[in-house]
Amino acid sequence: MIITGKYPNLRLRRNRRYNWSRKLIQESNLSSNDLILPIFLIDGKNKVQTIKSMPEVFRYSIDKLDKIIDRSIDRKIPMVALFPFTNKKFKDNYGSEALNQDNLVCRAIRYIKKKYKNEIGIMCDVALDPYTSHGHDGIIKSNYVHNDKTIEILTKQSLLQAQMGCDVIAPSDMMDGRIGKIRKSLDKNGYELVQILSYAVKYASNFYGPFRDAVGSKTLLKSDKKNYQMDYRNSNEALREVALDIKEGADIVMVKPGMPYLDIIKLVKDNFKIPVFAYQVSGEYSIINQGIRNKIINKDAILESLISFKRAGASAIITYFADKIVKELK
Ligand code: PBG
């Protein structure tokens, strides 16, 4: 602890007196460079569909993507994350649709890459939950999400996404050993420059509800994900997860959810000095959004929530507020 004086000689409020002075001593900053916008996709034409549990967030059909991608580029958001709402008729126990090269995500990647080239990055989730009839991230054997069989499919899913033009492969499944297998397969097939953003520290959280609604897995999921996602009581375990994923070849690691886990972001950053991304998840979004709509909290709460990630050490934040907040950053 460094203390250079004491009251009344020392008055910390002096530096806070004026806006200009507060600006000069700012320790953290947020710009559009720090933001990633998640986009939900839906089949069909001419659709911009509302999502009940996520006001002001929409599902877009591919022919309507221009609107949101143009806006992202215009607002200098470096990357979008694609998530598909998959029609029930395409779901089965094995999540086979994940490997269909004409599935919604694949078509969307091809469309965006063809039109926008490298003007904006694309990241895609690697996990089976949008595609399984039981809503789990992997395939189930004897009532248990089977690790190694799931990885086999995830490895193929990753390769397919890379072939379509995805820039950043983001496994969000929490299977053991998947980063290494995915890296190896990408490299073997000539995709050694495709990045892996590992959801290394993903907690079994109550804050994912609205997302599951948005991708259509909520009603299908009959149990929780606690035997693969992390227990929210743990933080040492987070360091073990990150250490493993770095060894296996992760370029960037993610901590998820966001605000209840700022301690974990800081812990990971301090220990590994690797880029850490934070995911301000759907439940966090909806709570803040509701609070603002109901005039319980002020709109500036959005900025406050996002700055908290920067203060904790996050390099970037995945947030449904990304396209909504940029104007206020100027
Ligand atoms: C799926 C996945 C989830 C989220 C991102 N990818 C949900 C889950 O694991 O059940 C949550 C994102 C959010 O809540 O905004 N693997």
Quick summary:
The protein has 330 residues and is α/β, with parallel strands linked by helices. Helix content is 37%, strand content 17%.
Structure description:
An 8-stranded parallel beta barrel has the order 1-4-5-8-9-10-11-12, surrounded by 8 helices. Strands 6-7 form a two-stranded antiparallel ribbon. It has 11 helices and 12 strands. It has a single domain, classed as Aldolase class I (TIM Barrel), CATH 3.20.20.70. The chain is globular. Helix 4 (147-164) packs parallel to helix 5 and helix 7 crosses helix 8. The mean pLDDT is 97. It is of the alpha/beta class. It binds ligand PBG.
Return the CATH topology: TIM Barrel
Output the structural class. alpha/beta
Low-confidence stretches: none
| Number of helical segments with 4 or more residues | 11
Distance between the termini: 34 Å
Write the layout of secondary structure elements.
Blueprint: H1 19-24, E1 35-41, E2 48-50, E3 58-60, H2 65-74, E4 79-84, H3 104-116, E5 121-126, E6 140-141, E7 144-145, H4 147-164, E8 168-171, H5 178-188, E9 195-202, H6 209-215, H7 236-248, E10 252-256, H8 262-272, E11 276-280, H9 282-293, H10 301-312, E12 316-319, H11 322-329
Parallel strand pairs: 1-3, 1-4, 1-12, 4-5, 5-8, 8-9, 9-10, 10-11, 11-12
Antiparallel strand pairs: 2-3, 6-7
